[in-house]
Amino acid sequence: MKALNTVNLLDSIIPISQFNKGQANKIFSDVKKSGTKIVVKNNIPECILMSPQNYQRMMEEYEDAILAAEAEKRLAQNVQYTDHDDLMKKFGLSDSDLDDIEVDME
Q1: Is 46:16 a contact under the CB 8 Å cutoff?
Q2: pTM (2 decimals)?
Q3: Is residue 42 part of a domain?
Q4: Cβ neighbours for 26, distance < 8 A, ≥ 6 positions apart
Q5: Total domains in the fold of the chain
Q6: Which pLDDT tens digit goes with each residue over 4-18?
Q7: CATH code where residue 14 lies
């Protein structure tokens, strides 16, 4: 998703009155081409229009940033972690005990 600079930011602003004038199809077509539109009402931004693909990509980047921040926070705590083998010994399990267990991973 490309960032908006001052020039294309101004080009992306559309008054809400254009929707009332039956120009929604043109606006949606412009969103597909340019990526985003900022809808203003009384010169105040009301919403941002973007394609579903751009929205999904933005949300994935946001979620990745949250996960990265959480990982950094955890690593900074210098916590002692337990590995798989130690957990298996602690609970008296062997690898064969886990053979018949199904796990779904996404």
Answers
A1: yes
A2: 0.57
A3: yes
A4: 18
A5: 1
A6: 555 567 778 988 998
A7: 3.40.1620
